[in-house]
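TEACHING EXERCISE
Course module: macromolecular assemblies
Task: Read the component lines below, then compare them to the predicted structure of the full complex.
Student: A.B.
Group: 4
Components provided:
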Amino acid sequence: MTLDSKVPAGPLQNKWDSYLESVKLVSPANKRKMDVIVVGTGLAGASAAASLGELGYNVKAFCIQDSPRRAHSIAAQGGINAAKNYPNDGDSVWRLFYDTIKGGDFRAREANVYRLAQVSNAIIDQCVAQGVPFAREYGGELANRSFGGAQVSRTFYARGQTGQQLLLGAYQALLRQVDAGKVEMFTRREMLDLVVVDGKARGIIVRNLVDGSIEKYAANAVILATGGYGRAYYLSTNAFNSNATAAWRCYKRGAYFANPSYVQIHPTCIPQAGDYQSKLTLMSESLRNDGRVWVPKKKEDVKKPAHQIPNEDRDYYLETRYPSFGNLVPRDVASRNAKSVCDEGRGVGAGRAVYLDFSDAIARQGQKAIEDKYGNLFHMYAKITAENPYETPMGIYPAIHYTMGGLWVDYELQSTVAGLFVAGEANFSDHGANRLGASALMQGLADGYFVLPFTVGNYLAREKASGVTVEHPAFKEAEADVKRQINGFIERGTKGDTTVNEYYRRLGEVLWDKVGMSRTEEGLKQALGQIAEIKQGFETNLLLTGTSESFNKMLELAGRVADFIELGELMTRDALHRNESCGGHFREEFQTADGEALRDDENFAYAGAWQFKGPGEEPALHKEALVFENVELSQRSYK
Amino acid sequence: MSDDMKLNLRVWRQAGPEAAGAFVDYKAVPGISEHMSFLEMLDVLNEMLIHRGEVAIEFDGDCREGICGQCSLTVNGQAHGGERGTTVCQLHMRSFREGDTIVVEPFRAKAFPVIKDLVVDRGALDRIIAAGGYVSVNTGPKPDANGMRINKDISDRAFDAAACIGCGACVAACPNASASLFTGAKITQLSLLPQGDAERNRRVARMVDQMDIEGFGNCSNLGECEAACPKEISLDNIAVMKREYLRAIFSKF
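Instructor-supplied answer key:
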C-alpha cells in the first residue's frame, strides 16, 4: 500500500478552503441514520463527539475513566496557541505555521500544520463562546503570554489550568449532546479491539471495566482519540491510566504506526524522589517566562544551598548559549542541555536536577504578580517537595511528557484503515519530531471541533447507512481474540512470581536509558535484546491475582503493559533505523560540532510508517516523503 | 524522618456493589516512606498483597497531581484526608506519624454507590452537568473572542468557581450528602459570565432538580463541603445557586 496523504492541490493558503468547498455533504435525514463511535473523551474526543452530535449523527462515546471529564487533557497547564495577534507583536497564521514546522524540526506535513494554524483562531472564539474563563487584562480583553520556540506572545491561558478549563468546555458541550440524546456515553469501558469488515472499520470490542463483561459496538465510522504512549516509559508526566492499547490494537488490525521514536521530554518536571514513584509531575513551561534556569559553575558548589552561591558562580546556561531565545528555547533543546550539565556533575539536589529560579522575577514584579500567574503550580510544587519555591529555587529535571508519533493519518485524519479516523495526540500528524508548548491543546481541539466534522462527513457521504451489525462474524472473531488474551493473563497469572508492575518498571528503565533523551546505535540494539527478555518473562512468569469477571485494575494494566512491551520494541526499531538526529530524536552519532541535532534531509525527510506483518514477524516500513514547497529547510537555530 | 513508617492500615474491602463490605487490617505495612503520596503508599501495599496471592485493593486515581478529580478516599473520616486544599493523591505520608493507624474508606453517599473496595460510581455528577451545566452553543463560526470584554474581577470569580475538579469530596463530607457546592460552583461560573446569561433560569432549575432526582440531600449551611474541597471552592457558590434558583422560579422562562 502506498501512503497517499491526500493533500489538496493548490497554494498552501488555499488548500483547506478548497477542500471544504469540495467535500461531500450528508443530508440531515441521512445523518440521523449514521452511527459514529468516538473512543476517548479528552480534548480531541470530546470536541469531536460533541460536534458530530450537534450535526445530527448518532454518536457513541467511550472512555476508560469514571467520567469523560477525567481525561488526561485536564492536566495540561500552560496554555493554547492561536494566531490572533492581539498583542500586535507581529504574529500571523504564517508565523504560527512556520514556528510549528520549524519547532518540529521539519519533520511534519506542511499542509496539516498550516491548517492547524488557520483554525487556531476559531478555537479561541469557540471556547470563549462556551464560557471558558481565560485570563483577562483589566480592560476586559484576553491576556496572552509567550511560550518556548516563539518570539511572539500568542498563548492564551487560564491560570495554570488551561487544559482543565478547555476540557470542561468540551465536556460540557459533550454532555449537552448526551442530554439531547445525540451522544450515548459509555464510561469505564476500555477498547480492546477494532473490528474491520471488508477493509473498513466497522466497530469496536470493549471491556466493561466494572463487571468485566465483553461488549460489541458497531458503527459506520470509528474515531480514535485515545492520547499518546508516554506511559511506555513507566515514569512520565502522563496520567496513571493513559495507555496505548486502543491505538496498538488498531495497528494490529492494519493501521500504520508512524514515527514511534518521536517522543517529547519535557524539561521542567519535579525530579524523581524514589523507586516507589509511579509518575512524575510537570511544572508548566510557562514558568520559563519568569524563571531562570541555572546550575553552579563549579562542581564543588552543587551541595551548597542555592542562596549561598553568588551570582557570578551561577551558570545561566540557556541564556548564555541561546541569547535570542534564552530560557524559552524549545523543549528538546532545554532538556538536552539539562542532561548535559548534570552529566558534567553540576546537577543539584540528588544530582539529577537544575534550578528554576524566580527570585529576580519576584524582585521585579512582586510576589503577588507571580502568585497570580503561577499560584497553583507553586502550591503543587510545595505539596510534593515540602519546599517553598517563593523562597528557594525549584529543582527540575526532564521527563517523558508527550509523544509526537502515533497512528499515521492522511490530510483527512483517516488512518490506513478506511473509516478509522485518529485525532489528537493519538495521531502523528502535526508536530513533526518535536512539539512546541501550548500546541497540543490547539491540535486536539482543531481536530475535534474543526477538522473531523467535515472529513468524517466526507467519508460517510459515500457510505451506506445500513452498515454491518454486531452479528457479523468479524465481531465474534474479535471478541474471541479479546477473551483469549484476557483468559491467558488470568491463567498464567497464578503460575508466575513477578508482578505486572515489576515488568512494567523494567521496561520503563530500558526505554528511558536507551530510547530516551539521547540514543546510540549500540544502546538501541541492546534495548531490543532487553525488551525481548522482558517480553519472554512477561509471557511465562507473570503473577496476577483476581478474576476477569470483576473490576480488576491489575488485569487492565496487564493488557496495557503487554502492548507497551511490543510498542517499545517498535519505538526502538524506529529510533535505530533513523540515522539522523531531529527534534526529540537525538542520536549521539549525529550531532553538530556544538552538540545540536544534525538532520539528514537527503535521506530522512520522510514520515516512517510501520505496518504490522503478524506476531513474531518484522514490521514493514513505508515512507511518506515530506515535501516542503513553502519553507526552506534549515538547521534549527535558537541562538 | 523515616523510610519505614510501620503504619497500620484499616481498609474498607467490598467485593462488589451488592456484597457486604468490612474493614480489613494490614498491620505494620513494611516499606512505607514519608516521601510517598497516599496513593503510592497503597501501590506498595498492593504489590505486597499480590505477592501474597491476595487480590489488590481497588481505588481510583489517575493524574496524581490533584487536577483530574478521580481519587476519592476518605482517610480517618475525612474526604481526601485532613490536609486543607489537598486531594488524597497529593497527601504525603509525611503528614502521618510512625506507627499511626489509618482508616481508609470510599466516599460515602447514597448517590455514590460502591463499585468495589474504595471505588464508587459518581455518574450522578455528570448527569447534573448534563441537565444544564453548559452554554448552549454549537461548534461553528463565532464572534471574535475580544469582541466581548469581560471585567477581570468577574472573570476571576468565574474562574474560582470553574476550578472545581468534580471529585465529589463535598458530597462525601456533607452530613446530608448534598451536591450543592459542586452544582453551585458550575451555576456561579456560568451565571457570572455574559455567555451564560441567556439560559441562566432554565439552567439552575434543571440542575437543582437533577440533584434531587439523584438522591443528594439538601444544604443546611454546615460548611463541611468547603472545608473538604481540595480546590477550596467557596461556600458563597451555594448562596449564588439559591439566589439564582429563587430568581428562576419566580420568573418566566
